[in-house]
Design a protein that fits this description.
Blueprint (H helix, E strand, L loop, with lengths): L4 H24 L6 H7 L4 H6 L4 H17 L8 H12 L3 H13 L8 H24 L9 H21 L5 H13 L22
Amino acid sequence: MARRGPYAKGIARREQILDAALSVIAERGFGRTSVADLAEASGLSQPGLLHHFGCKEELFTELVRRRDEVTATGLRPGEDLVGFFLRTVADNARVPGLVELYTRLSAEATDPDHAAHGFFTERYAEARGLLGGLLEDLREQGELPAYVDPAATAAALLALADGLQVQWLLDPDLDMAGVLDATWRAIRGPRSPSPDPTNSPCNAGSSSLE
C-alpha cells in the first residue's frame, strides 16, 4: 500500500534534501562542504536540516543510503551484478566528493558507538551475500574455476574496491576500474573460445569413406 498524507510528504521532503546535499558534495567535495552549506542547498537553516535527521552523523549515513538507492536504479536490463559492480566503480571516479563521503564515513563507522555502525555492518553483509550468491551461480555454471570460494572472493572484491577508492583519493591517476577489472579477469581465468564450426573434423576435407 502506498504511503499517503503527511508521512509520504515527509519521506519525499527527506529525499529532496538528500538529493540536494549529494549534488553539493559531488560538486564541492565532502571535506569542503559544511552542514550549513547542505542546509542552504535545501532552503533550510542548519537546525531545520538536522531536525529531519537528528544529528550530522545520521545525515551522512542517510546520504550514503540515498546514494545506494540512486545507484541501484542504474542496473541495466540483463546486466549481471559483477558487471554492474565494475561499472559502478568506474562511475565513482566522476564524483570524488561522494567517494570521500563514503570512505570517511565507513572508516568512522568501525566504532560500534558510531551512528553509522549498524548501517555499514548490514550493508557489507548484504553486499557479500548478493555478490557471493552470484559467484556461486557462475561457478556452478562453469563460468568460474571450481577452486574459487564464492564467499571469500566476494569479500575480497568488496575490500579491493573500497581500498582502491582510498588509493584513488590519494592518487587520482589510479585507474580503479581497470585494476578491479584485471583482478576479476584473473579470478575467472582464461576463457575458452567458442568452437569454430569451419574447423570441425566434419569439414576437414574428403573422407576416406567417400
